[in-house]
Amino acid sequence: MSVSRSRNVILATGLLAFAAAGLAFPYYLVALKSKPVIDSSKPLPPQAIIRGPYLNTGSHDIGPDHRDYRKK
């Protein structure tokens, strides 16, 4: 095995290890965070109670606007 071939094998192995680590990282984060974001045994914080009814109320799509707007 020549020096350039061994370097290519080392480089390919390193690239494959880097790609495998990058692909495994999201799964690792999910496995690390096993507890839920909101604990259902505790009451909601005041910020969540205040925001609750208003979440996504301003983004209703009612279709295209057929009115003609003229510049003043």
From TrEMBL:
PANTHER family xrefs: OS04G0165500 PROTEIN, OSJNBA0019G23.7 PROTEIN
Regions of compositional bias (Basic and acidic residues) in chain numbering: 62-72
Protein name, as recorded: Uncharacterized protein
Residue ranges of the region described as Disordered: 49-72
Species per Swiss-Prot/TrEMBL record: Vitis vinifera (Grape)
